[in-house]
Amino acid sequence: METIVYSANGQKKGRIELPAFFNTEVSGVLLHEVTTACLNNQRSGTHKTKTRGEVSFSGAKPWKQKGTGNARAGQRNSPLWRKGGIIFGPQPRDYYTKISKQKKRLSLGMAFSAQLRNGNIVVVDSVKIDEVKTKKVVELLRNLKVEGMKVVFAISDDADFKMASRNIKNVVVESIKNINAYQVLWADKLVITPGAIDSIKERQSI
Questions:
Q1: How far is it, in rounded angstroms, from Cα 117 to Cα 111?
Q2: pLDDT of 145-158, one tens digit each?
């Protein structure tokens, strides 16, 4: 399976043979499981509401039991009252969801395959910039005709390029060593270099 390689100017430079995992059969069930796990693992789980035992109120009885015409009441921290405790409210918890290495590897191949079939992968020969400036990255996006889209750069580690692109909305620069299926599927366009393809090929063959 081949695809076009573009230069940083947006010109066709040649073709590249893609590894076999770009032709993986896609399973929607597995991709859903893995992307849900990725989203769960981003949650902090620090949400908290106070129960009736934690709200700050006196324990005194608001009024006497009989003779006032009011309904019976024992404490002001009742969940039925304004500013009272919350029944079954959220409590701190860990949302971490474990995914096996086999599922991670397989789902990543599926994600790349799905994006390739939809025409959403752009292979560019290099993303090196001569200045660490945002306008250089914007110029690259414009040349590749992906400006204004959700773009993920799956590249080898490049601190200068990552710093220059961090102020652009919906542009994510991720090391090819750390990229996951959710990031690949989130992108409208996935920009990748030949060197990164070689790296991910090694990673997928382990």
A1: 10
A2: 999 999 999 998 88
